[in-house]
Design brief:
The chain is mostly beta strands. Helices cover 5% and strands 59% of the residues.
Length: 795
Amino acid sequence: MKKTVVGLVLYLAGFAAWAQHSLSGKVVDAKSNLPLVGASVWTETASRGTVTDESGQFVLSKLPEGKLEIRISYLGYETERMTLNLPISGELEVKLQSKDFLTEEFIVSATRASSSTPTTFSNVDRSEIAKRNLGQDIPILFNFTPSVVSFSDAGAGVGYTGLRIRGSDQTRINATINGIPLNDAESHGVFWVNMPDFASSVENVQIQRGVGTSTNGAATFGASLNFQTDTHREEAYAELDNGFGSFNTWRHTVKAGTGLLNNRFAVDARLSKITSDGFVDRAFSDMSSWFVSGGYYGEKSVIKLVAFSGKEQTYQSWWGLPEAKLQNDRTWNYYTYDNETDNYQQDHYQLIYTGKVGFNWKTNLALHYTYGRGYYEQFREDDDFGSYGLDPVQIGDHLIESADIIRRRWLDNDFYGFVGSANYVSTDGRLDWIIGGGANRYDGGHFGEIIWARVAGNTNIRDRYYDNNAIKDDRNIYTKATYEIKPGLNLFGDLQLRGINYSFLGVNDDQRIVDGRADYTFFNPKFGFSYEKGKQTWYASYAVANREPTRSDFTDNPITEVPRPERLNNVEAGVRAKAGSFSYNANFYYMGYKDQLILTGQINDVGAYIRENVASSYRAGIEVDGAYQLSNVWTVGGNLTLSQNKIREFTEYIDDYSVEDFRQETFTYSNTDIAFSPNVVGSAIIEYKPSKNLSLNWLSKYVGRQFLDNTANEARSLDAFFTNDLRISYAATPRFFKGLEVNLLINNIFNELYEPNGYTFSYFVPGGNGRELVTENFYYPQAGTNFLLGLRMKF
């Protein structure tokens, strides 16, 4: 009996294997016969699917014999449905017909560089973002793009994070979402902590280095990040994305979409939750977000409503780590009060229209509104009443002039306006002309509350000890054109006029009245050319950018002594090439600054450090990046930046407490390095793909020495570091799933001890020779070896 049963089982298994078949084919454009990469192939009968490779090829295996229904879809093309009887002989060829509706790509095209634009840029698409996205913030996801240095306050890539590109920090990097400004109008910064898991709703992003092309919002003063949110999909879908990692990091994401309904309408949505304890003690993050978009897709127009929101609570780790604790207590946190937290929510609403007008014109218009509100709470030990405008408290014979206080500092702001553009392409395709611009208003309230005091005196809960408001109007108009003067040779011009009116009224947090107004008009021209020959594009350009001072430059300085605006003259020259399995970019850049604003140690009349203009400074370097497919299973890529970043001359101010009457000592420096601008930044990625479903990636990053201030003093610097990560990805299409992906990321696999960010200050105290210089360095250490594991299920 046992032999009979075993024989029957083996017979049935063999019969089942014999009855299973494979279906292979190729998907191409019906007119050009060119392969369509990434087209979706789905079997209704077997509930399995795949996507086409770089040659438009696909293979579906283990299919049952008999009738098989398949569906082939691709964005911008009519969906093809077929019924087959397996087995079939030969390879299936599917020709898709393009749809006559307007693509969503035009929403961002006005502010983006194209292949013929003479500037330096990188494009990162959704598939590449998805490989890296396991819950860490956007600056960490871009860590391996050229000239980028990223960092995290809590040390694990979740919570407060930031990045620098060519040494320029986030206040000098313009960011837009669907062409709409993202930077804070006053500080010029972008706070990624307010946008948890935003990467899960990004279709693609273009990173322009240098001044780049004209855009909306804050001046591009080092680089720009141009995001496009999710575009609609042809078919309905649902995705569950869950992850877990070191430091009790959890990520839960749900996405779903209707696909194209009635060939005209689509709705997409996402809900996310990310929590982490952080590498640094108590530096937890508790963040949630949502994203919804709905659109009408006509033959000649697209109308789209996009709304998204992020809410965060993070325990503060802003203080950093003192140098004395760097070796033995890297997780130390200065803050111990249990609610020393940052709390903020930001809601974004965008109404976007894009359409064709005749044969040669396309137009784009967007209305937007952003509402932000929140506070950070602080415990202040034995704080002076005078700092809060409070009178001393008399209790018996004791005059109390200070006490423990808990305060909250609030932001409550509205940002709204419109952006638009019109694009004309000549019938012969030689002229591509765009005119665009926008007008935006920021209305921001700043106030502080006392919510508790050990000795309250004549105060009530939530008394405001400062309160001020700012209004900022930002308008710009630009025109840009690319003209092909002969085959392969293109001339480019870009002119922008930007006007700013900024007014502020009230009492600042240091109890000073900060009433004032400033008006600016900036002209930002850009010119260049590109030459395409074969698979190479050579380019060169010259661009000018002007930038107004930030809020603190106004509030910390007397209005009669506000710093001058900064000016940047940028030269870019390079080559882009792609030939077969090899692609590369190589470029030279020079960024010459006039009146760049830097911290010098100078203080104002209440002891706050202010920024001052330095007459002349520059960044100059060479950037190289590329990728080469060695074989079907091996691919190598990477990038390298070599640069010099110098201030020709500046004066440093150091506090002197060695004398009876406080003063500041001055020291003059020449040809010193700009702070946080390493001379070497590089990364490398090696991919091994032994099968279609499995990918192993080794990722390396090197960042040279960074100085904490502008004196080029090695005693005030961050050591160079070299980190290595391992990413393992497995993707399959089992029955009842459109896709199943498992991603494991092991960060800092060799447990490198490194700090990519910090700050420093120095002062004189009485000493053996009359006085002694004390320098205090603070660092933001990053986690040692840690991991993130993610599972994505597609339906």
